[in-house]
Amino acid sequence: MSTTYQIVVCGSIVPDPLQTLEPVPGATGPTLKNEMMLPAVLDPWAWHALFEAAHLAKNAPGSKVWLVSLGPKAKLQQVMMTIAQKAPFELIAIDGSASGFTEASEVAATLAGAIKAIPGLDLSRLLVFGGWESASRGSGATMQIVGEMLGIVNQFQGVDKLTIGADGSIEILERIEGGKHQVSICVGPPAVFGWATGSLPEPPNNPQVGMANMRGIMPALQKACTSKVGAEGVTFASVALPKQRRDTKIVKDLSTDEIARDIVSWITNA
Amino acid sequence: MSDQSVEQTAAPVDRQTMDVDIVCVGFGPATGGFLTTLSRKLASADGAPKPESSVTPGAPPQIICYERADDIGFSVSGVVTKARGIRKTFPDLDPSQIPMCAPVKREKVLYLLDPIGASRRSATLRTVDTLIRAFKGLLPVESGAFELPYIPPYLQKHGGLVMSIGQFNQWVGAQLMNTGMVQIWPGTPVAKPLIENNSVTGVQLADQGTDKSGSPETGFMPGMNVRAALTVVGDGPVGPVGRQIDQHFGMPQGHHQRDWAVGMKFVVNLPENCPLEAGTVLHTLGYPEPEIFGFLYVYPDRIASLGIFVPSWFESPVRTAYRYLQHWMMHPYLWRYLNGGTLRSWGAKTLGESGRRGEPHLVGNGYARIGEGSGSTNVLTGSGVDEAWVTGVQLGEAVLELLEQHKPFTKENLEATYVRRRRASWVETEGRVAERARDGFHRGVVTGLIGMALAGATKGRLFAPVKPRGPAEHTPTLRQYYAGRIPRVEVARIRQECTAKGVSAHDALMDRAGWPAIPYDGKLLVSHQDALLMGGKVQAPAGYADHVAFLYPNLCEECGTKICIEVCSGQAITPGSNGAPAFDREKCIHCGACFWNCTTPHPEDPERTVLEFRAGAGGLHSAEN
Asked: Chain A within 8 Å of B622 (Cβ-Cβ)?
């Protein structure tokens, strides 16, 4: 049985985690120092979700991928330069905060609204992809609320693999406690998938894909609607980055046993 | 003996082809100037394309720019610039709208005395030092630095800007993308120009999904051929596309690229009690070695960009920029401002210091050269960004003229439009004044400074008449360099011990020569590897071939200096197990210093060396440089 899918990837942006991040108090809550001068990247979990979506669409001819992205328009534009050569998609841009200091329910409502507005949306073919986690929010709730708002009850979180069966069913590998996976079978769309890391490598840059994507990206950015997601009424007691301890050691060709021993020793002596 | 050069994958592959109107290689100030000029006039007021694309009828010209770094703001530098050309393009430019940008307020040029006694100074400079110390009560001497009472006009940057080119590139790039007229793709290295019948017909992108040697692996994707009526080469001083064009077409009579420098710098959060105000510009000379120049530019919010230039005419086989940079920062004059500061970012890049003398053929059928790689840098005024920007603007105007007249991008047409504009501009006039200004440095620092002063004062009519030599011609061996300071047997022992440990010898040799150990504080004085990881955030995406190649390993084994190991800005080149150097792409910051420092001439082309620097992805991953 061949199925064509409408795959909508919810993927926002985060400051490039390799840059120097420094939370500071802002007028409406916590913010990052010099945030607008930090380069941004697609949220790493959403990044994996996009690869998986592109892979699935490639193997189900006739399928289409949308990327619904909420973030400051200027930053979305910059991120598109680094991802648009990777996979074919149509961008739906929403201009709003991606600071991480936002309520999951407000973000989810915005995303669900954008998905509902996709012309020709067909729930019987709809797969909603997103990150299980986020590098900036990490509430673990956004995708579930998006699903609820779209009326989708089949939801899977911590997904590492998705296999389409001959009958059109979907076998899902979900992460569960204890380092194990749970196998579920879903009869088919609609469904929501919060991706963990997946198993696909980053696709190579394909200039032709980039050219084709970009024809739609700039108009999408130009007509991006504004969303006032935030955290009104919420007080942040404190904000801090995870404590870092740096101990540089560069070695090559160590066995995995030696690396593991080294890490254990480093942690236990911390 | 055989040249082990490999161009992309050796296996026959079916490469896809894409047609565009204009393809640009490298996104820096020159390409920024080019695309800004072009994109403003590619559509009529009603939005209709003006003129039309030849590959996509009905649409505006398809213009694509490929940049090898992971983002358009990575892999560049902090600068002070008069910004004449940049301000002409943006008459209402407000520095406060560009992060890490401020108007120049205060300039000083400082001669740094050696506070340690380890610096390798000539008798003349020792005499100068003695006189300065003897008369320090009468002279403007402060914390071991003599402030030059007069800055020649050609060195002044009054009215200009200090800025981070990383941030400036982001600012320009965002405006360009906003126009929808051009596409800029970072993370996409260009392997080579496509040359057919002595015309450049486009470029070939680097293969993806290969192993270190370039052989296909899982997910192999051959680099696409991107064909274009015009290829704009703005890939900088060590860009592989520009150099391959030079190899194919040769250099103009009497032109050569023999003068280089590696610029290495920190971006620093200055301590809270630092009194330096935004817009302060300090330039230094004299220390840690007389040949090494330094700079410190203060941005808003107590952020500073500071570093050193290590030039090719510094005749040392241990010209390690990182160790020297730390000694420079710790000079008493600077350390009183920096002590307590924190490293934000770090990086290094090559500067093409041949200036107009290194100008290649600016145009040919189907291609044009802009920016630093086109010889636009002014080596007298120490200015390159604004000049690069202007060359891009000139090409932009020329291309618009040719598009409007429906004329093809032939050598003749590009000469009549782009080259004509360039020759008539201040970039050319001032470049000619500077052409031989620095030649004297090939005979020593004092001769060099006198030559610069002569050229500056006489508009280039007088200069120190010294013939420049490439690094291969004048770099001494370790034994020669340390003669009289470290016994030759000890030099040999240190080299042997370091080779056995797989590390460069410069730290051990400098320790032995009297340079004190750096007291690491984990904040500003950090190890070289921590600077890479914490400051440069160096990345190496998988699936690309090594971009540094040793073409004749047997010649490398016999090399007396192994200078590529000593000079490597990222400690990515180390002693290899078979005597030839080993390369670790994960540490490379793509500064290109190994390429021009190599002292072993290519057996078939004395202007080349046996180290090849190719297109590669990754490197520095900080937008603050």
From this structure: yes
- With CA atoms as reference, the chain A residue closest to B74 would be A39
Q: Is B184 on the interface with A (CB under 8 A)?
A: yes
Q: Is residue A89 in some structural domain? A: yes
Q: How many residues can be counted in chain A?
A: 270
Q: Strand, helix or coil at B575? A: strand
Q: Do B185 and A81 touch (CB under 8 A)?
A: yes
A203 contacts in B (CB within 8 Å)?
Answer: 219
Residue A128: give its domain's CATH number.
3.40.50.620
Of all residues in chain B, the percent with pLDDT exceeding 70 is 97
Q: Is the same domain home to B174 and B31?
A: yes
Residues of chain B neighbouring A208 (CB-CB closer than 8 A): 16, 18, 224
Domain count, chain B: 3
Choose the closest CB to A214 out of B71, B183, B533.
B183
Domain count, chain A: 1
Please report whether residue A257 resides in a domain.
no
Instruction: Give exposure, A195-229, as e/b (b: 16+ Cβ within 10 Å).
Output: bbbbeeeebbbbbebbbebbeebbebbeebeebeb
pLDDT band at residue B6 under the 50/70/90 scheme: very low
User: Cβ separation of A205 and B208 shorter than 8 Å?
Assistant: yes
Q: Out of A38, A81, A82, name the one closest to residue B623 (CB).
A: A38
Range of the structural domain that residue B244 is part of: 17-81+166-255+382-395
Closest-CA distance, A200 to chain B, in angstroms, reads 11
- pLDDT (tens digit, 9 = 90+) per residue, B419-445? 999 999 999 999 999 999 999 999 999
Q: What is the pLDDT of residue A248?
A: 66
Asked if B221 and A206 come within 8 Å (Cβ–Cβ), the reply is yes
Interface contact A81-B62, CB threshold 8 A: no
Up-side HSE of residue B148: CA atoms within 13 Å toward CB? 16
Residue B271's CB is within 10 A of a number of other CB atoms, namely 16
Whether the complex's predicted ipTM surpasses the cut of 0.90: no
Q: Return all residues near B347 (Cβ < 8 A) that are at least 6 apart.
A: B75, B76, B77, B264, B265, B535, B536, B589, B591, B620, B622, B625
What pLDDT, on a 0 to 100 scale, did the predictor assign at position A135? Answer: 84
In this complex, the residue of B72, B219, B527 whose CB is nearest that of residue A248 is B527
Q: How does pLDDT run across B76-132, given as a tens digit for each residue?
A: 788 999 999 999 999 999 999 898 999 999 999 999 999 999 999 999 999 999 999
Residue B172: half-sphere exposure toward Cβ, Cα within 13 Å = 27
Predicted model pTM = 0.92
Question: pLDDT digit string (tens) for B540-574?
Answer: 999 999 999 999 999 999 888 889 999 999 999 99
Which chain B residue's Cα is nearest to A214?
A: B183
Report CB contact under 8 Å: A248, B70.
Answer: no
